[in-house]
């Protein structure tokens, strides 16, 4: 088990998200972000499957066919679009992604930056979060609400083109001022 390394990774990621949330004015979310990662259900799995270069949930999924830690995590953290999956009000649509409140889309955006910084380390570039999203975005289908996907993609593109400082200022002064 690699408990200390996993704890350092969680703490580093959480610190980056907190700093980002504070920059845009989401203080409570910055403080509360990913607290479930310290629960035994998530932490022990993280220690067992820790690699340091990617989420241990991926390794758990490869080993067992699913990730118990991820199922626990996404069900408790509103900044994951998977939290917002529910049956449609239109009976023929089945299960679809619901529109996320803006403050959680922003936290999701910051979470993606922090994850990229955590796993890319010194190799991180502001283009990494967008590239990672675009690798998986085509597979999301109806699991992420179109408005949520559009807002997230817009912010990730802005980050890639204009950088973190300008994107965070835009979020704080343009997006969150409206809400």
UniProtKB/TrEMBL annotation:
Domain of life (superkingdom): Bacteria
The protein's name: Catalase
